[in-house]
Structure formats: C-alpha cells, structure tokens
Amino acid sequence: MVLSIPLAEAQTAPKTDLEDVATTQPADLTTAKLENTIGTRCALGDGVPQNYGLAAQWFDKAALHGYAKAEYNLGMQYYFGQGVSKDKTKAAYWWEKAAAQGIAAAQYNLGNLYFLGQGVPQDYSKASLWWHKAAALGNAQATSNLATLARLHPEYQSVAAVEKKTVVTP
Predict the structure, then answer these.
(1) Whole-prediction pTM
(2) Comparing C-alpha atoms, which of 164, 2, 113, 46 is closest to residue 105?
(3) Of the candidates 25, 38, 160, 170, which lies 20 to 30 Å from 121 by C-alpha distance?
C-alpha cells in the first residue's frame, strides 16, 4: 500500500492552519499562548538552549488550558519521545483533543494512528473519519490516504459510509 507519506511519520502543522483557541476563559487563552510560545522556543532552541523536557512542561501547562496548539505540540512530544517517554497512546490522547478543535495536522496524524493501530485500536473507520476531516481543511496527504484506503477497501469511499460504520463519532 502506498500512502502519500509514510504513516509512521507524524505531520507537523503549518502555523497558518492553527487557530488560537482555548476551551476556558480569555485570560487563560493569553496565558496558554504565552506558555505554548515558551514551549516552542525551548523545543526549537530559539533564543534559549534547546530543551525538549522543558518544552514538554510548557506545552503541558498550555494544554491544560485547552489550548489546541499546545495539545497538538504535546502530542508531537509524546509521539517522538522528545522530553517525555515515547508514548503513542498519550500522543493519540492529545491529538484527539487538538483534532476536535479543528487542527488539521492533528486530525491527519490521528487518522494515521487509527490506520496503523498505534496507541489506539486499529480502526479503518476512524482513520477514514479523521482523514475526511483533515482533507476538508485542505490537508493533501489526508486526501491521498483516503484515495488509497478507498482503493483497498471500497466500503470506505464515502463519508456517509464511514459515519454509518463508526459507532461513536469522535
């Protein structure tokens, strides 16, 4: 099976695709944005020595405010084991939170995890559902993966069929 990019590789999110939202109060959004920014600088070594452990701590603080970017970033830390133990179950947890807030890269990555059964039970219906959501937001890799999945498993060709097969909609 040939997918658009190797499914084992998590996709990074373009900055323009991400929304600044937090599921709590406006003051928490400001705090969460700052915490996420500090985490990003620590992860990239931007103006400070690179420190993935410290980055993960800052992403965690911001994610606890419900900040979608930080939830996504924390999922990346767990997926790659940067500053935290590698844990695809925790990556799936945080990506699902970010995906529910419309982060296309999180939706795509979550679809990959469901497709491969990494950190979650293998479930082509859920993989397809998350890839459909990511594709609707313009994620080209998700569109390509959906086409491949539809060729291999024709029952996953339409969104309606996927939703019918999915017992619990994420």
Answers:
(1) 0.79
(2) 113
(3) 160
